[in-house]
Amino acid sequence: MPEASAVTDEGDETDAESGQTPDFDGEVPVSVRVRADTLKPLLSAVGALVDECRLTFGRDGIRAAAMDPATVAAVDAELDAAAAASYEADGTVVGVDVTRLEDILSMAAGDDPVTLALDPESFRLHVVADGLEYAMGLFDPDSVRGPPDVDDLGFEHTASLTVPVDMVGRFVTAAGMVADHLALSVDPDAETFVAAADGDTDDVQFTVTAEEAVAFSPGDAGSLLSLSYLIDIERAIPAGTDVRLTLGRKAPLGVAYDISGGDGRVEAFVAPRLKAV
Amino acid sequence: MPEASAVTDEGDETDAESGQTPDFDGEVPVSVRVRADTLKPLLSAVGALVDECRLTFGRDGIRAAAMDPATVAAVDAELDAAAAASYEADGTVVGVDVTRLEDILSMAAGDDPVTLALDPESFRLHVVADGLEYAMGLFDPDSVRGPPDVDDLGFEHTASLTVPVDMVGRFVTAAGMVADHLALSVDPDAETFVAAADGDTDDVQFTVTAEEAVAFSPGDAGSLLSLSYLIDIERAIPAGTDVRLTLGRKAPLGVAYDISGGDGRVEAFVAPRLKAV
Amino acid sequence: MPEASAVTDEGDETDAESGQTPDFDGEVPVSVRVRADTLKPLLSAVGALVDECRLTFGRDGIRAAAMDPATVAAVDAELDAAAAASYEADGTVVGVDVTRLEDILSMAAGDDPVTLALDPESFRLHVVADGLEYAMGLFDPDSVRGPPDVDDLGFEHTASLTVPVDMVGRFVTAAGMVADHLALSVDPDAETFVAAADGDTDDVQFTVTAEEAVAFSPGDAGSLLSLSYLIDIERAIPAGTDVRLTLGRKAPLGVAYDISGGDGRVEAFVAPRLKAV
After folding, report:
1. Quick one: what percent of chain A has pLDDT higher than 90?
2. C100, C131, C136: residue with CB nearest A206
3. Are residues A103 and A193 in the same domain?
4. Above 0.90 for ipTM, yes or no?
5. Chains A & B: contacts with CB separation below 8 Å
């Protein structure tokens, strides 16, 4: 997740075909035709944390990245060009109101093809679906907070497990009944993952064994997390999705999953809390 | 839509059978037996604009008419006597709390026959359905604002089209995302209907071609309308209904549709705005 | 419904097996395994009136009893040990947050077996379901208002009828449209039950004949009741349940029904009002 400071994410490269540095009014116009329900999971993932995000129409696909205002959680989502019925773009980066874009797409039937086209003159994104044309104003991408580069942060992850999203939903819901934080840990000897929340009078604990997980890579890990970010991230995950949780010792939690039948990927991170308040 | 000033809508006629001027305690008692779901669309159409309306139990059917408090929109709805399992009335006009009457009918199953009977002594409408008898207080119809006579207003309509109600729903929803008003126009050369709304940063436009419409009678037409009235009117239209939109040059919009399988009709009007604020 | 002043409901008996007075840390640990949807109707019935109640884990089953804060309505609910997949208890009485316990059970699928186990050391109830363990803090049962003994109150009931719960729902909903109270009466000559509510302008009346009732035992009866308690009690009754209403002359209304396929029983009472305000 590079800290984008320019309007292109490939600013140090030249466009192979045009021989020019691609920018907003480059030679290749941005024009994407994609089913509404193919695009929605990418937007939902980012919209869970922010209202405004950077959207990159790269040569190989769309990328959305954001960090929440409190800089506790970040998300990076990609959708391959192959997921679209037709795809033309060269790396233009724009700032969009992601909630608004979700609302517009919700007016299209799930299997409706939606066309997204950038109008460089008016700096607007045209969303066209079945008789409806919506021209959405864009932001300067530099005015939108981008996520930090995850690799630069040097997280040391020691354990991971893959579970169905409804299992994640169960433990965040249960934890929310007693507290606003949640301790996630992996016991390498017992080969179990434990989500635990302590309230004033009530405690709750959710255990996943290696056998119950889709995949389990044990290791010594344990972090305390603010629940609200996890709740938001979990809500954006499509039903039936397998989710990979990555943990460390007082390290951020990673939440990764595929979208759009494998033609896209979401990776979210939640920074640990030092202690419960 | 005559401005009713008396308690009968046929006050200048005499009752053929009784030889008397029909009034609230006339010779023919009002007694109507009708399915709850047959009566509901008439009430919904009027309830979309007002809480209280005039209800006329005419010899040939029930008529409800109302104008909204700001006198921007009016509605006139009729249900033929043939839609009822049994029907007896002679032109009595009463003022009813239409929201309350909708609530009462919502307690009856859709295919339940409901009996409406006027009690002239207590000035109440008795609604009887499956063990339940509800006696609803009535208003003096003169105390309820009636709609103006549409013919007197001399609207000059120049174009019309018929579209499924869900198409109307799409463009009022889309317009509501960016503005509180909506421009409707017909391009006679292109043979298209366009609904357009301009917001501060975003614009939305919905186009219906002659081919996409159920029926299309082109002509030069264009009006600016307050969105809230259109939203209320559209919500009251039963799913699957074809709606006829009538337009002029800065003239009111007409919204007309059949109810109860053709045994009733609704006609609504929304006055144009001079300009967007 | 005895006014429980001790932590056991069988405090005057000795435990046959252990030879000791059973108490919270008795020889027989409380451990119940039961489907979530088997336990829910008992909790719903009590939760309709109170947030906190006394829960008795008796030798033959679970009993929950409560009186609302205004001491107008009381409820007593039982679930036989036979309704549970496994059952071990000796009469321990605890105070529970019934709303919280309902929330916890709502996280289990209806046909999930849930295990309830008392931890006498931490004075908490452990609820275990499919990976999730919730430790719920308990109250001193003496701190929770128990219901009065119904037999001591000497109600003289003169009439009763059994009707489907949706019939009760219809008349409480209809009455709620016009008033906050409701008169229930039985006419022994006409063999009818009448629920009537008088509002400022509107009246509503619901009549059940002996033929329409599942069972009818006529007698002179009539009471005025606050509607809100009836609404709360009715909402907690599972769909499709037959409800037995017991009436007297200015006597409390009894509302009794079976839960969990006959393996449990609920009995609620609502004290009459002297007059409508």
Report:
1. 76
2. C131
3. no
4. no
5. 39
